[in-house]
Amino acid sequence: MKNNFIQRAITGALFVVILVGCILYSPLSFGILFTIISALSVHEFAHLVNKSGEVGINRTITALGGAYLFLALMGFCTSAIDARVFLPYLGLLLYLMITELYLKKKNPIGNWAYSTLSQLYVALPFALLNVLAFQNSPETSSVTYNPILPLSIFVFIWLSDTGAYCVGSLIGKHRLFERISPKKSWEGSIGGAVFSIASSFVFARFFPFMSMWQWAGLAVIVVIFGTWGDLTESLMKRQLGIKDSGNILPGHGGMLDRFDSALMAIPAAVVYLYILTMI
């Protein structure tokens, strides 16, 4: 038990240092890190659904698709290239559809569905981090890299998870979603939300490009959709009959286990921030 705790602590600390460091260091390190994370996460998802024996999707092609989508959207958001950058990605999606005509697998519709889901559920949210990280400046007609927005998403998720665990362990009595995740409680979820919202005031103090209430609104959105993201992955693992999505992170499971909340929180944050610009 003690060795497992130490392993979890070391892995968790390295994970946070690498993630925070690469986001803050430069656009290049940000791009390299999340291109790798996108590919690994999609590959892990494909491996999981293939283990069920009901479908058989191409892990390599779908993983390459996830990596390419991230890079394509990064290029588009930085104005390095126009929308034609997405044409090869569309070609890849067509390839995944057409090859099922010739492979003679037992469940082609399932293969199509899960191949598409690997891109929609896993690859697209990571790619949308670019929308948060790169902003066009109307005054200078240039694109600036703002690492604080993508970083804040992960900080809100981490503090929500930590707060939910601490508060839930102490006073958690009312189950949040017992059918899917018996250990989660309403008390823990509310406690986690308080932690995240409190940190949003710190972001507002040091990064006032959004108001305090806009930062708080972002934290609330991340907490709500992050919880749904966590439950979604729990539902998937429950249906597949597995405890962890993988073992790439010793003591912490797989990539999907670490980023399950972000897979819904990131798209929701993008929608929220776009709504703010329209008001």
Automatic annotation (TrEMBL):
Gene Ontology biological-process annotations? CDP-diacylglycerol biosynthetic process
Reaction catalysed by this chain? a 1,2-diacyl-sn-glycero-3-phosphate + CTP + H(+) = a CDP-1,2-diacyl-sn-glycerol + diphosphate
Main enzyme class = transferase
Q: In which pathway does it act?
A: Phospholipid metabolism; CDP-diacylglycerol biosynthesis; CDP-diacylglycerol from sn-glycerol 3-phosphate: step 3/3; Lipid metabolism
Q: Which GO terms describe its molecular function?
A: phosphatidate cytidylyltransferase activity
Q: Which UniProt keywords apply?
A: Cell membrane, Lipid biosynthesis, Lipid metabolism, Membrane, Nucleotidyltransferase, Phospholipid biosynthesis, Phospholipid metabolism, Transferase, Transmembrane, Transmembrane helix
Q: What is its main location?
A: membrane
PROSITE patterns associated with the record: CDS, PROKAR_LIPOPROTEIN
The Gene Ontology CC terms held by the record are:
plasma membrane
Where is it localised? Cell membrane
Q: Show the InterPro entries listed in the entry.
A: PC_trans (IPR000374)
Bilayer-crossing residues are 9-26, 61-81, 112-135, 147-167, 213-231, 259-277
Respond yes or no to whether keyword Coiled coil is given for this record: no
Q: Does the keyword Protein transport apply?
A: no
Highest taxon of the source? Answer: Bacteria
What is this entry's stated membrane topology? Multi-pass membrane protein
Enzyme Commission number(s) of this protein: 2.7.7.41
Q: PANTHER family annotated for this entry?
A: PHOSPHATIDATE CYTIDYLYLTRANSFERASE (PTHR46382)
Q: To which protein family does this belong?
A: Belongs to the CDS family.
In Swiss-Prot or TrEMBL terms, this protein is called Phosphatidate cytidylyltransferase
Q: What is the lineage of its organism?
A: Bacteria, Pseudomonadati, Bacteroidota, Bacteroidia, Bacteroidales
